[in-house]
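Appendix B. Raw example, untouched.
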Amino acid sequence: MARAATTSDTFNAIAEPRRREILSYLALKERPVGEIVAFLRLDQPSVSKHLKVLRRVGLVRMRCAGRQKFYQTNAEAIRPLHEWASTFERLWQRQLLGVKQLAEERMKESNSQLIPKERS
């Protein structure tokens, strides 16, 4: 089965690590393309291609001020990604609880072996 185009939906768009990095960087505030280029240490055409994909699926918004373009993460468009990932939160919590319980049991066993037993 052929892989869907990166511009077909948000999940395909964020499959690329650089795009996720851009989204995270833009989450805090709107930034001009030059800042994004400097942050990623990529050439401007590569950053522009990533931004184009993110814009096409609605994950970032662009605003023009003169000749400069500013981008910001579109939080509303990220909501479906968050909701989907949240479905796995119970699984993660259960896994973490199991690890915590195992670590506590081992710590108790370790401590009980260090404490000398009283003589009767």
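End of appendix B.
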